[in-house]
Amino acid sequence: MPLPRSSVAPCVFTLALCVNLFAAEISFAQAFSGDEIIVTSSRVVDQEDPLLSKIISNLSETNVLDALDALPSVTAFSNGGAGGNSFLSIRGGEPNFTLVLLDGIRLNDPTNSAGGAFDFGQVDPAFLEGVDVTFGALSSIHGADALSGVVHLKTLSPDPTDAVSFQTRLTLNARDGYSVSGNAQLGWESGGTVLAVGTRDSGDITPDSELKAQSALLSLQQDLWGGTLDLTAYHSETDRTAYAEDSGGARSGVAPVFEDRETEISLAGLRYDRPISRNTQLNASLNVSEQRAFSDIPAIPSGVLNGVPARRDETDYERWQAQVFTRTDLRPNWKLVVGAEYAEERGEGVGTLDIGFPLATNFSQSRDNLSAFAETSINAHPSFLLNGAVRIDKPDEQSVQPTYKLQSTYRATEWLQLHGSFATSYKLPSIFALSYPLIANPDLEPEEGESFELGLIFKDDRLGQLSITGHDSKFKNLVDFDPVVFTNVNRRKVQSRGIEIVWDKEISDQIDLLTSMSYADVETSSGQPLRNRPEFSGNTLLDYRHSEALSAHLEWKYSSDFLSSSVPTGFITLDDFHRIDLGMDWSPASNWQVSFDILNAFNQSYSYSVGVLEPKRTFSISLDFKL
Asked: Does residue 402 surpass a pLDDT of 70?
């Protein structure tokens, strides 16, 4: 059943085109090879972890989840195959504990049954030139939902120095998958614009699960009234088939259960910043978005666990947000940010649940949130930096939610830097948990979290750069379904402790080695381990540069065994695995690049979800051309 025509999408792109008229690079290497991933958590100072930056910027992934999965303490995959929902856990948190942004615009959808987790299949990686990843509790910066981390997707930005250019990228794999994208860029003295379009089909990279998507992006930058105006407009539609979540995939006791889903996302964001005095900068933004989804999930027959009735759902979620803040240099070593934000959201669903007869599952809810926040950064000593943030949120029909963060960095010597932080966070109950018939509980309390970390960065010309970080996160009031009272309740507590080690070494002028390992111990108050949380994981990237025109890389991925579950099997342990990917990049000319990649080169058999094998050995070729 196709989704009805969106009412917001035409408005989004009409607004974008109007601004573009008023104002009068697909990544040429690989996805994410433009700007680096920057691990940042403040409006007053940019804090970059160069090692995490290199992990993403050197990968040749054409899938956002695969790239994120390479980071320490991160588990990311598509649940049910290429067409399935996204699973992303940062430092043991639930998928809906990660806030996802695109150019500052929120992407989490609280009307879905995943409690607000974002589906990364809706984002075309060809449109991205950078990704910021922040670990830990970040509600004092971003508000609700940022319990375990923030993923900020940054789209292609105009280059005023590039008068006119066109770029295109074609990727084909041996399993009938492809992606085609292109962009046109126009630059002028006071700004520039980028228009990009793309289409993707995962093919048979995972049997019986497929993702088809079409996307468009418009980006604009223009000097205006002594400041800078930035615009982002994005639209994406997907059509996918996947093994139904918890159905057991090919291990189903009967015929496999497949779900069909369609999604549509439209968004636009305006950002304006300008100096209003010698020491003060004004920043303002206005964002609007709409997400629509349709899903048809057949019944999952009972097995070790109770069966799940058939469902059909159609949801519509709209959100708008306005924010303004000032950034002031009080002294050369003291910066201050103060600001306010207001947001409104509306979610509704229409559907049926088959309990012997079709039971209507319609719901609707609107809510708003008013916020005030402040951040500061003080260089108390040339070797000591102290950052702090506090935020007060007043959500509709909820109590006031105060959150804060303290962070310090100390450069002990030229080769040793120490850092530590403590922060609190919260997440509002999703509209689905509050309103979905049969299991709704309007009295749910917000989920809460706190995170603590200590770490060091060691850098030596001979030994390379080493980063070691220990972390401890606690979550409480987790929303859970109680089968006894047959409703959602607040009850679980989760604690996640771990350590992350990242080492970067230039072996020679031509060879770079970048490796990471992480350990996590996740405990719940119920004693039941959480699913898809491996205790150990690791990633190594070996990069060889033969010349400016020719390079090659090898990536090794490891995960220890972990708990999973499905209705037919109950809780089971999925085996550990090693996976090796190979790739080569060749530039026969300055405006051409050819990339050859072998995914899972040694044909490792492994699964992230029960009964669903991850891709076998797959060959792909990509062609990039710039005019």
From this structure: yes
